[in-house]
Structures are given as structure tokens and as C-alpha cells.
Amino acid sequence: MANDQALREKMMHLGLLEPSLSLFCNELEEVDYEKGSSIIKAGRTAPYLYFILQGIARVYIQTEEKETVFCFCLETDVLLSYNSFFNESPGYETIELLENSTLLRISHRKVKTLCENNLDIANFFNRLIGSELVKTEERLIGTQSKTATERYNELITLSPSIVQRVQLGYIASYLGVSQVTLSRIRRKMNR
């Protein structure tokens, strides 16, 4: 599978080389989920970290008033609830698959054991989580400092397939605007 190779290349880019790469990959379990599956649910402990081989996901929270989408994740991206995975306590967010998806998963227990026994894997895991935290920080800063139009333009520039693969209501929620406002933004950009 091409995405399997892309994921291995991403891992190598983060410093995980042979034989540690094979050792880590051998611990990953391939799982298939149907569109609409919530692999991580708010208020529950989620013991797995996932990598997307095929599919797309949204990360969101639900309040009494509304649903707020924080991000979309595509092939080779990591899916996890930081609080749940690292603190082994209920997470805040829900991660829902927006397409039939193939994921690779590894449990917290296996990651901990691998990191305790293999310095290369421990260093890789630290770099992986560091890169994920930087992405989270960039999204947070973008939410606070950019207009919805700027954020939409950035979304279609960096991840153009999201616009084709994700319903507009979720994109509007991600941008913090109504679907009507998103339609206006799209019309202005297409002029």
C-alpha cells in the first residue's frame, strides 16, 4: 500500500531507522473502520495511538450549544487523545472517521515498553509527539490570530483534498463560522 510506504518515510524523517523502524512497525496492528466510527470518544479513556493509512478523520468536542471541530487528519497523520493516552484518564475530544478507513494502532502499554527498551524508538516517539504538539500550537495560534478567510485559504493550500472529502458543515465549524458565511468566503475566493 502506497500510504504504508509514505508512513514509513514519515517515521524515517523523524529519525526512526532500521532495525528500530521494523521493530516498531511490527507492533502496529492494522484495523479497518466504517465511515462514522468514533475511534476515540470524549469522556472515555483511549488506550491507543493511531496512524491513518487510508481515510480522513475529524477531531471535535461537543457542548450543549454546538460541536466544534479542531482539526482534520489525513493519511499518515497521528490520531490520539493526549490526555487519555498519556495520563490514562478520560479524554476531552471525539475523533470520528469521515470515510471508511484503514488505521494502524498501538497501545499505550506497547509504546511504553518499546520506549523503555529501545532508545531509538523513545527518541522517535518524543520527536513524533513534539511535531504533533507544534501542529496543535499552530492551529491554536491560527484560530486566535487569523480571519476565517485566511484560515480557509490556508486549509485549501496545505490540504486541498479536505475540501473535496469533508462536508462543508464540518469545515465551517473548524473555521468558527456558519455555513452561510463559509459559502460567502468560497464565492469571494472563486471570483
UniProtKB/TrEMBL annotation:
User: SUPFAM superfamilies per the record?
Assistant: cAMP-binding domain-like
Gene3D superfamilies from the xrefs? Jelly Rolls (2.60.120.10)
Lineage, top-rank taxon, reads: Bacteria
Domain Cyclic nucleotide-binding positions: 12-114
Q: Which InterPro entries match?
A: cNMP-bd_dom, cNMP-bd_dom_sf, RmlC-like_jellyroll
* Name assigned to this protein: Crp/Fnr family transcriptional regulator
Give the species.
Answer: Olivibacter jilunii
For this protein's source organism, the top of the classification is: Bacteria, Pseudomonadati, Bacteroidota, Sphingobacteriia, Sphingobacteriales
